[in-house]
From TrEMBL, chain A:
Molecular function GO terms recorded: DNA binding
Family: Belongs to the CTF8 family.
Source species of the chain: Picathartes gymnocephalus
Main localization, broad class: nucleus
Pfam families associated with the record: Ctf8
Swiss-Prot/TrEMBL GO biological process terms: DNA replication; mitotic sister chromatid cohesion
Keyword terms: Cell cycle, DNA replication, DNA-binding, Nucleus
Subcellular location: Nucleus
Protein name: CTF8 protein
GO cellular component: Ctf18 RFC-like complex
InterPro entries according to UniProt: Ctf8 (IPR018607)
Top-level taxon of origin: Eukaryota
UniProtKB/TrEMBL annotation, chain B:
Gene Ontology cellular-component annotations: chromatin; chromosome, centromeric region; Ctf18 RFC-like complex
PANTHER family attached to this UniProt entry: SISTER CHROMATID COHESION PROTEIN DCC1, SISTER CHROMATID COHESION PROTEIN DCC1-RELATED
UniProt source species: Picathartes gymnocephalus (White-necked rockfowl)
Protein name: Sister chromatid cohesion protein DCC1
Gene that produces this protein: Dscc1
Protein family membership: Belongs to the DCC1 family.
Length: 118, 392
């Protein structure tokens, strides 16, 4: 098995993506399927600090330039090719990630205003 | 899912008691893309240099059959692959801008709807490793080339290997494979890589050394064209040239003629192998005498020419010598040491070095290997190494 990590576009620059690192699990609300559901709003302060609002939480993070960048590999559904080594399985390098937004601080819960009882 | 509007974003900010004045105007509304949960994406952490290779448009290849642990190869390096777990969730977001990028582009949209392409709790980690080249010799030894006269080659049903075949079967980079083919004196015959059968190789070498002797050429100046003329009727010209390339250093003189400077050490070593392979072991002094007589006149034999090929037993009376080829030993570090300590209980550093030198990783020393895999002690005032574990 000799999966090839070939560049997806062939020519042109590889896409640059960003990694968002969160603590714990990400679970969809109301146990709906993850695909298509909202995660939250990502803001940056004027100083460049990333702020992520997820559900009832505010997460403060920092922008980190990765010492070791990542390549994002996407599996290509088996492309059968005859070869002495057997069928090939292809992975494509879809993007590079050189930056991550690291949210390590404890989420601050958003306390919604509770109307006073008269 | 419906896309969030600016009004909704602002409302959330208000609820969160964040002051919009302290924030950059652009917001990323993150949602999970349609493929996000599919597990089709994974992350590969890149060692220095690999990122630049990918950006330059070069490919990386994962190699390994079902019974082998996968390695990743660039054009010239090989890496072990290992899964690293992280307790955190890693989301990969295309089109997500950093503060610098937002500030640099004042026209950037107020709302950026970003779809998370995938997520992972682990990633592939790489560690540079020695290329796994033992298999290369093993494949080529399935069918060594015995010369054009044998019927064997015409009717052979053995696999023959092209460069492409080797690239898909050997867990090493292309540059490392091609280099190793040169090291083991492989040659291409009809498009496939072959190793010469040892007896045939010695036959070819003998033709050349006899010719050198009869022509009284100095070993440093053996002319290619005369060799081809004189020996061309005995053996294929490609084979004559191949043996000269294997046992000599090619150069061109001022007149543009091709010569070879014969490699005395390599020739003596090959002849020693020829002698040693005929018995389990030899009386050392008898062997040294026969060996010196067997090499071309004018060449001098020395025991240090046999490093990694033969081992002298100084404890036996009389002293003996036997064939022990490093390429026949296991490739894995621990297995190599087990094998060596099975052959001999205690080794001096001088004796063991030729048999572990090839195990050294980039910047690793023999000393470091010995510290890790062996235990030292003193024997008759000499430092020796033995196994860390009891020999079964």
């Amino acid at each position: 098995v000799t999966p090839h990590l070939s560049h997806s576009g062939g020519t042109g620059a590889l896409a640059q993506w960003v990694l968002v690192e969160l603590q714990g699990e990400v679970e969809p609300r109301q146990s709906r399927e993850l695909a298509g559901s909202l995660l939250g709003d990502l803001h940056y302060t004027c100083e460049g600090v990333p702020v992520l609002i997820v559900g009832h939480h505010i997460l403060y993070g920092k922008v980190v330039q990765l010492e070791k960048p990542f390549a994002v590999l996407v599996k290509q559904g088996g492309v059968p090719q005859p070869s002495p080594a057997g069928p090939h399985s292809h992975y494509t390098v879809t993007a590079l990630i050189k930056t991550k937004l690291l949210f390590k601080t404890r989420p601050k819960p958003i306390i919604t205003h509770v109307p006073k009882k008269v | 899912a419906a896309m969030r509007s600016r009004a909704e974003v602002d409302a959330t900010l208000q609820t969160a008691k964040l002051n919009p004045a302290e924030l950059l105007p652009a917001v990323h509304c993150l949602s999970f893309g349609p493929q996000a949960g599919g597990g089709e994406c994974c992350l590969l952490q890149l060692e220095p240099g690999l990122c630049a290779e990918l950006e330059a448009g070069r490919s990386l290849v994962i190699r390994g059959e079902k019974d082998e642990r996968a390695v990743l190869c660039s054009k010239n390096k090989t890496y072990d692959m290992k899964i690293a777990d992280t307790s955190n969730m890693l989301l990969f977001v295309p089109g997500c801008k950093t503060p610098e990028e937002l500030n640099a582009d004042p026209a950037s949209c107020n709302i950026i709807h970003s779809q998370i392409a995938g997520f992972a709790k682990n990633y592939w980690e790489l560690r540079r490793c020695r290329p796994k080249l033992k298999k290369l010799r093993k494949l080529l030894m399935e069918d060594p080339y015995e010369g054009p006269d044998t019927r064997k080659d015409q009717t052979s049903t053995f696999s023959k290997y092209t460069t492409e075949d080797l690239l898909s079967l050997i867990q090493a980079s292309e540059v490392e494979i091609l280099h190793q083919l040169q090291v083991i004196d492989a040659c291409k015959i009809e498009g496939c890589w072959r190793i010469l059968d040892f007896d045939y190789e010695m036959k070819l070498l003998n033709h050349v050394t006899q010719l050198i002797d009869s022509e009284s050429w100095p070993f440093s100046k053996v002319p290619l064209c005369v060799c081809l003329e004189e020996l061309g009727s005995l053996e294929p010209r490609e084979m004559i040239e191949h043996i000269l390339l294997s046992y000599g250093r090619k150069y061109v003189d001022d007149a543009g003629e091709v010569f070879f400077e014969m490699r005395e050490d390599k020739i003596c070593r090959a002849i020693a192998q020829m002698l040693l392979q005929n018995a389990v072991k030899f009386n050392l002094s008898e062997f040294e005498e026969v060996w010196q007589q067997s090499v071309p006149e004018g060449m001098t034999t020395r025991l240090d020419q046999l490093q990694g090929l033969a081992l002298v037993d100084k404890s036996s009376r009389p002293e003996t010598i036997f064939l022990l080829k490093v390429e026949d030993l296991p490739e894995d570090n621990q297995e190599r040491f087990n094998s060596l300590f099975g052959i001999r209980e205690k080794w001096t550093e001088v004796d063991i070095t030729p048999y572990i030198q090839d195990l050294c990783a980039e910047k690793q020393t023999v000393g470091a290997l010995l510290t890790k895999y062996a235990r030292s002690s003193m024997l008759n005032g000499v430092k020796v190494y033995n196994s860390r574990r009891p020999i079964s």
